[in-house]
């Protein structure tokens, strides 16, 4: 039996554990509510893929997951409130998010979509606390607990490069 074939059961066990962890944490976040907003954003789905599927990646360090989500959402809110809802200001907010994530070494790719969410939802500044800060923190803590209690971290050959 080839090495590749002998790793299939382990790979599937890790994949199922990662999927179950993502299902549980995202399900819990989706079930929370503060007025009309759940403790959830669309970009958390992509974050879940990374923190459960590639926990050893540099993109999954807690400070990067939480910091990038807060940073990019704050940039989106600032651009929206300073410049209004224009295509160029949305583009500016995404460009600034990329620049600052790279410059501050807070790269977490799913957070780059947060300005798009801000422009679509047009929330107030409390959005930074709920769902951004609390949701991303809960995602990081949930993933760490899941890995500690249930799953061994997967080792992928196709691990994303470290930022």
Summarize the structure.
With 163 residues, the chain is mainly α.
Please describe what this structure looks like.
The chain has 163 residues and is mostly helical. The protein has seven helices and no strands. The chain starts with a helix and ends in a 14-residue tail after the last helix. The model has no long low-confidence stretch (mean pLDDT 90).
What is the topological layout?
Elements: H1 3-6, H2 8-31, H3 43-53, H4 62-83, H5 87-103, H6 114-121, H7 129-149
Q: Can you count the helices?
A: 7
Mean pLDDT: 90
Oligomeric state of this protein:
single chain
Order of helices and strands: HHHHHHH
Distance between the termini: 36 Å
How helix-rich are the residues, as a percent range?
55-70%
Keywords:
mainly alpha, 66% helix
